[in-house]
Amino acid sequence: MSQGRDGVITVISPHTEQPIAEVPAATAAEVQAAVAAARQAIDDGPWPRLDPAERIAALRRLAARYAERGGELAELISRQIGAPISFAQRAQVGLPTMMMGAFCDIAESFAWQENRPGFFGAEVQVRKEAVGVVAAVVPWNMPQFLIITKLVPALLAGCAVIVKPAPESPLDALLLKEMLDELDLPSGVVSVLPGGTEVGAALVGHPGVDKVSFTGSTAAGKAVAAACAANLTTVSLELGGKSAAVVLDDADPAAVAAAVRSASLSNSGQICNALTRILVPQHRQSDFVDALAAELSTIAVGDPADPATQMGPLVTARQQQRVRDYIHSGVSEGARLVTGGAEQPDGLDTGWYVRPTLFADANNAMRIAREEIFGPVLTVIGYGDQADAVAIANDSDYGLAGSVFTADTERGLAVAAQVRTGTFGVNQGYTMDPVAPFGGVKDSGYGRELGREGLDGYLQTKSVAVAAG
Prior knowledge:
Blueprint: E1 2-3, E2 8-12, E3 19-24, H1 28-43, H2 52-68, H3 70-81, H4 85-108, E4 113-117, E5 123-130, E6 133-137, H5 143-157, E7 160-164, H6 171-181, E8 190-192, H7 197-204, E9 211-215, H8 218-231, E10 234-238, E11 243-247, H9 253-265, E12 275-281, H10 285-296, H11 317-332, E13 336-339, E14 357-362, H12 367-370, E15 377-383, H13 386-394, E16 398-399, E17 402-405, H14 409-418, E18 425-426, E19 441-442, E20 445-446, H15 451-456, E21 459-466
């Protein structure tokens, strides 16, 4: 992606390194107009005042249209960010399609009002009302999933939403806007503003915005939180991660390797909840390292348009260089490079590719163990006993996800209770189940998406006391 001085975003294929589209970046005037229209929709329009059933019906119509055009969406996402077409179909589009139906189901059973007998004799009505104008700022790695998990609950809540897609991935967001326009929603209820950091900064710092929902890096999240604080704007932050897979001594190496591959290397490792620190018992370290190396050796790297491809390129040349720098850092700090490396994969002369890479004999003080790489790099760290494993898992600035692998589920649940993180899996990577709230602690952010909690994040609570008699 590049943005020229004329305000045009050039979308570049990570596979061919050639331009595939140009999109106008939103101007400062367009940001102001979108906020004003959203403000009008909230303050005077019908959308937040509809019965929730009417909003649910509208979103179910969107879900049906979305499913019809899913193939187009998957192709756009694959071309923009280099995701293998099979992964784009299954996860980048299939998962959001499923999420929309699940969110509507949650909204149908949601307690929009609760009546309580007041302590002083009055009846107390506790109402849930739309928080107002929402700025949804999303990154490029899972563009539709991240838009849908913000947009749909916000719309179900009665909010007006301004979506700011990343400049690397504006095309799918604009196609989604076409589908939304077909719903004939009230004016100002949804806007899409492609652009870079300047558009995002204008949105999150705007006094007309009531809530910001941001997904991105921890550094950017801190800047967003500071901008929101100036206006006391509500904000939720889903940020980076450096999640640990705690492998107990009774786990099966082949099963662990298959699960870690799925949970860590999908989308070329460009997923925030990837399991990138693999904690294994010292006395069985070679068993797990060998199994992981064998698993990584089977990954088909290549053209994302090929259905046989299992791993595509990274999203930009900048991201490719960043990941290669981390690989060099791991070697220089003394970790053992088991497989992979910083060289271009065989047979790929162009494209921003990185080999699936595995380090062993690492420790938790190394950069490859402490910093989010956001690429296909796994780091194996040995531990002494179970308490040591938990301590290493918790020795991180992040707390987004994590997993434990064991033949004893109860033992795994005991570990889950001790690891400080927002989400966790037992004998699997954390799955984005629509009924389960998702989010992090520490430098991984705050607030929750998905589940009833995700819907509630776009609502504010009002208490109304009605005098007896």
